[in-house]
């Protein structure tokens, strides 16, 4: 990547988000390295892909995970373990990263408490 300067790291700006969304609208959701170069964002393909998949996709759900979604996560985690992308496929609009983080920060403790309650 000579001549292009260093790749940007760190937080994304609103302008970069808009630029990425426009690039994806024109070029599609594939070949992220090519898209990153063509867009002129000075971000890596991986960075562009993760930003799109986890934050900018129009079909993403943002906000609170419902009790019904929690039940699905707990049930599927008991069945499949830490297969976050597989679990996310059963929860349209939720990302594997979001589910993993929610599990680790909150739901794991709740699930363990529920299990203790069943056996006591």
Q: Outline the biggest β-sheet.
A: none
The number of strands is: 0
| CATH fold naming of the largest domain | Arc Repressor Mutant, subunit A
Please give the CATH architecture of the largest domain: Orthogonal Bundle
What portion of residues is helical?
A: 55-70%
* Cα end-to-end separation: 61 Å
Mean pLDDT: 91
InterPro entries: EOBI/EOBII-like_plant, Homeodomain-like_sf, Myb_dom, SANT/Myb
Domain HTH myb-type: 1-56, 57-111
GO molecular function, one term: DNA binding
Pfam family, one: Myb_DNA-binding
What this model shows, in words?
Residues 1-56, 57-111 form the HTH myb-type domain. InterPro entries: EOBI/EOBII-like_plant, Homeodomain-like_sf, Myb_dom, SANT/Myb. GO terms for molecular function: DNA binding. The chain has 120 residues and is mostly helical. The chain has helices at 14-27, 32-39, 45-56, 67-80, 84-89, 96-119. Helices cover 65% and strands 0% of the residues. The radius of gyration is 18 Å and the shape is elongated.
């Amino acid at each position: 990547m000579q001549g292009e300067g260093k790749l940007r790291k760190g937080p994304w700006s609103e302008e970069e988000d808009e630029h990425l969304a426009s690039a994806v609208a024109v070029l599609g959701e594939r070949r992220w390295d090519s898209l990153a170069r063509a867009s002129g964002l000075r971000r890596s393909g991986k960075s562009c892909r993760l930003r799109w998949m986890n934050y900018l996709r129009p079909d993403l759900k943002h906000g609170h995970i419902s009790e019904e979604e929690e039940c699905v996560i707990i049930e599927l985690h008991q069945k499949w373990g830490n297969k976050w992308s597989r679990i996310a496929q059963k929860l349209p609009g939720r990302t594997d990263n979001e589910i993993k983080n929610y599990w680790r920060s909150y739901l794991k403790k709740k699930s363990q408490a529920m299990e203790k309650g069943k056996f006591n």
